[in-house]
Design goal:
Blueprint: E1 2-6, H1 18-31, E2 35-41, E3 49-53, E4 56-61, H2 71-90, E5 97-101, H3 106-116, E6 120-123, H4 128-131, H5 138-151, E7 156-160, H6 164-174, E8 180-184, H7 193-201, E9 208-216, H8 222-232, E10 238-244, H9 255-270, E11 279-280
Parallel strand pairs: 1-2, 1-5, 2-4, 5-6, 7-8, 7-9, 9-10
Antiparallel strand pairs: 3-4, 10-11
Helix pairs in contact: 2-3, 6-9
Length: 283
């Protein structure tokens, strides 16, 4: 597995939290044997290319000779440079997935992924509307629009809470699924209607919203949350359940059966055709 990570910051360039997060993520993947290429912006005396450890290489690229006149133009110039460098490095050593970190590298991420025919994973580290408690300028509206565009490629949204998120994320990564988003809902009461609506609205192209839980259908959060999920999802979206079937007991009591059911519910969440559990049709 070879992962390309695109970011406008990486140590020693630290602007916000993305650099630290990306540094930890890149090294954690390298520890697991995954090859990681980070392509980022040039910074001071930091080397333009380095391989600081096994399975990790870092390329830093500068803007072109024409200096941009505002921040948005600077970011667009940076995206051109990142995309060109990433595609150059892919020659003879192709990527299996492209990971774009935030709106700042959205255009480069989409360009490289489409040009090379590999999945695109996007992480919005903090939404513009959430960071500013609304949109109050044209610049903020532009950033919000780019965030929406970057996430628009998803065809399904899986909503979950707690540990099952990691099982879902692992399955998506191992099967190279690039058109299904996973949303973690860690606050169930009081239900965060405004935040959930804003998150779901990013995936206007998605036809389905799936609630995935480890508990049986008649236990856990589904029966309490399904009305909220239906009300707050888009009118065109089907809301469905993926989890264990109805049961009088919260656990099966046999380790082997538990593992089999866990495998099945994860597969059900990603299934091409939703067939398991309960389904609430679109309005």
């Amino acid at each position: 597995m070879h992962v390309l990570m695109l970011s406008w910051e990486y140590p020693p360039r630290i602007v916000g939290g993305i650099a630290r997060h990306l540094y930890d993520l890149a090294n954690a993947l390298a520890d697991q044997g995954t090859k990681v290429t980070v392509v980022t912006a040039a910074f001071g005396d930091a080397p333009g290319y380095e391989e600081p450890r096994e399975n990790l290489r870092i390329a830093r690229t500068a803007l072109g000779s024409v200096w941009p006149y505002d921040f948005e133009s600077e970011i667009m110039h940076l995206n051109f440079a990142l995309a060109a460098e990433a595609i150059r490095l892919a020659a003879g050593d192709p990527y299996d997935v492209v990971h774009a970190h935030d709106w700042l590298v959205a255009y480069a991420g989409n360009t490289v992924a489409r040009a090379l025919g590999v999945p695109l994973v996007s992480t919005i580290h903090q939404t513009e509307i959430g960071r500013n408690n609304g949109l109050h300028s044209l610049e903020q509206q532009y950033i919000h629009n780019v965030e929406w565009w970057l996430t628009y490629q998803s065809s399904r949204v899986i909503v979950c809470s707690g540990k099952v998120y990691y099982d879902l994320a692992a399955y998506r990564r191992e099967n190279k699924i690039d058109d299904i988003a996973i949303v973690r809902l860690e606050q169930q009461y009081p239900f965060p209607h405004a935040a959930f609506k804003a998150e779901i609205a990013k995936y206007a192209k998605a036809n389905e919203v799936v609630w995935c839980q480890e508990e049986p259908q008649n236990q856990g959060a589904w029966y309490r949350l399904r009305a909220y999920l239906r009300a707050d999802s888009l009118d065109s979206q089907v809301v469905a359940f993926a989890g264990r079937p109805v049961s009088a007991s919260p656990a099966v009591g046999y380790a082997a059966k538990h593992v089999a059911e866990q495998k099945q519910l994860i597969e059900d969440a990603f299934a091409e055709k939703l067939v398991a559990g309960e389904m609430i049709v679109a309005h």
